[in-house]
């Protein structure tokens, strides 16, 4: 049977898209017929797989605004789905579930993913949408057992299960943890709260030559530069811009600590990648997915507590090595083959 992943836009630089293409390539390499559908084109396409073994499709060149554009796009989507052999339709977000689940031809078994946490869903429209649209699906998948349990209880889902995000590749080399560098990775946008990471770095009393390197770009760049100056660390916060995916392993090998200060996260790939390279992390305790990756946890939004843990790891190389080894051992569970095994178990469960 085929496996069809559908995203709002399949080629944005983002976590949902990275996970989708990683899973699509992995399942295709196991012999499944796999399709990735983007409902509309992104403004800045990003290529995740150089030689995809799966099929890629685009429904519309832009978001379908207005009832006429939506009807035409839905007609194109239904026509495409009729050409694909029946199988499993993996709908990657609440928006996609609400729009696409009613358009699936007979024979498709719908699976709804949610890449956020229960805490985030509860604070926005996502929880109401999940309550309404996910119960009729064959399976609803969340990123951790804790999130699956909470959705099952509070969204009254009879079909909730958990599958984590996968690591696209497993590094053979670990960081030596002796470079005086704290690393932050992600879009320079408000939700990532890099201002908090900058403040925590300043308050941690990490001495020179320790630096904070931020990888990513976005609309908050100039504000974050100004914030670093106000915090007195403008000369030790290095804005690196976007780093190509193939160069990211070298960035982890040159880091000694990862900092994660987001308002909300499901299970961020950066946390898994750093752990696989043996880099310990400090993170706000915002989800079951974050907890499952094993960082040093501090209460959400508590910059002083974050700074204290950051300072402790800066000062203690032996503790960094202990926590880095623990993180790498925990990251084994997120290796691609293990996660693909989980997906095939889900397919078998649905067929039973």
UniProtKB/TrEMBL annotation:
Q: What class of enzyme is it?
A: transferase
Membrane-spanning segments: none
Domain Glycosyltransferase subfamily 4-like N-terminal residue range list: 14-155
Stated name of the protein: Glycosyltransferase
Please give one Pfam family short name. Glycos_transf_1
Q: GO: which molecular function terms?
A: glycosyltransferase activity
Q: Which UniProt keywords are listed?
A: Glycosyltransferase, Transferase
Top-rank taxon of the source lineage equals Bacteria
Keyword Glycosyltransferase attributed: yes
The record's annotation in Gene3D superfamilies points to: Glycogen Phosphorylase B (3.40.50.2000)
Tell me its EC number(s), please: 2.4.-.-
Q: Where is the Glycosyl transferase family domain?
A: 177-329
């Amino acid at each position: 049977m085929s496996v069809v992943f559908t995203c709002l836009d399949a080629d944005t630089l983002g976590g949902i898209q990275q996970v989708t293409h990683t899973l699509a390539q992995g399942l295709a390499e196991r012999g499944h017929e796999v399709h990735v559908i983007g409902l509309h084109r992104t403004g800045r396409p990003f290529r995740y797989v150089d030689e995809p073994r799966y099929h890629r499709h685009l429904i519309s060149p832009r978001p379908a605004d207005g009832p006429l554009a939506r009807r035409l796009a839905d007609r194109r989507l239904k026509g495409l789905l009729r050409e694909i052999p029946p199988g499993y339709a993996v709908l990657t977000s609440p928006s996609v579930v609400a729009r696409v689940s009613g358009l699936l031809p007979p024979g498709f078994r719908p699976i709804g993913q949610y890449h956020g946490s229960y805490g985030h869903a509860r604070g926005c429209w996502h929880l109401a949408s999940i309550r309404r649209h996910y119960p009729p699906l064959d399976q609803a998948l969340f990123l951790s057992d804790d999130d699956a349990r909470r959705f099952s209880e509070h969204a009254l889902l009879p079909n909730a299960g958990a599958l984590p995000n996968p690591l696209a590749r497993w590094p053979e080399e670990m960081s030596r943890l002796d470079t005086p560098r704290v690393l932050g990775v992600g879009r320079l946008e408000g939700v990532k709260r890099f201002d908090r990471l900058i403040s925590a770095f300043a308050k941690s009393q990490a001495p020179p030559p320790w630096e904070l390197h931020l990888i990513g770009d976005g609309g908050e760049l100039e504000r974050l530069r100004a914030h670093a100056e106000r915090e007195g660390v403008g000369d030790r916060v290095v804005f690196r811009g976007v780093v190509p995916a193939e160069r990211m392993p070298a960035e982890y090998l040159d880091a000694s600590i990862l900092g994660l200060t987001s308002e909300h996260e499901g299970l961020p790939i950066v946390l898994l990648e750093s752990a696989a390279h043996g880099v310990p992390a400090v993170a706000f305790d915002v989800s079951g997915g974050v907890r499952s990756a094993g960082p040093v946890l501090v209460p959400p939004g508590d910059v002083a507590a974050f700074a204290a843990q950051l300072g402790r790891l800066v000062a203690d190389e032996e503790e960094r090595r202990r926590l880095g080894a623990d993180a790498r051992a925990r990251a084994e569970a997120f290796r691609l083959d293990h996660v693909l095994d989980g997906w095939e178990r889900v397919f078998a469960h649905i067929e039973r």
